[in-house]
Amino acid sequence: MDALICTAIAERRLLMFAYADLMRVVEPHLYGVNSAGHLVLSAWLLPGYSRSDPAGGWRSYLVSGISAAQLLGERFAGPRPGFNPGDPRMERVLCVLPAPEADGPPNGAPNAAGPGGGA
After folding, report:
1. Were both Cys, which of 8, 74, 79, 101 would link to 83 (CB 3.0–4.6 Å)?
2. Average pLDDT of adjacent 10-residue blocks, the chain of 119 residues
3. Cβ contacts of 114 within 8 Å, gap of 6 or more
4. Cα–Cα dist 28/90, whole Å
């Protein structure tokens, strides 16, 4: 699972997985070990994948609760507003979203190649 999550983060690719009996599609940003010693993924949940908050937003997922994880072909532009690569809840960071490209699109905007395309 480490390699899959780190690949998704490094390549800015969407990640789909089952969590709490629902399929989730997220933009993974940060993966590491929290202060309680658990592997945790910090990600932006895309709208429509949560009963409690259908608008999506920031979520932390215990990796022990993730199953059926798949790397999707679609990419995301870069860090979402509020992303903190130095999240104090993380005792040890395993993978972190790379800095946005200087000439890339604004945060949350699709890349110039359109959905799923791009470098």
Report:
1. 79
2. 96 96 94 97 91 86 97 96 93 89 48 34
3. none
4. 15
Q: Report helix, strand or coil for 23.
A: strand
Asked, for residue 13, whether it belongs to a domain, the answer is yes
Establish if 58 belongs to a structural domain.
yes
Residue 83: which of 9, 4, 8, 6 has the closest Cα?
Answer: 9
Say which residue the tokens 């990600």 belong to: 43
Alpha helix stretches (DSSP H) within the chain: 2-10
The contacts of residue 102 (CB under 8 Å, 6+ apart) are: none
Q: Which residues pair with 4 in a beta bridge?
A: none
SS3 16: strand
Q: What is the pTM of this model?
A: 0.81
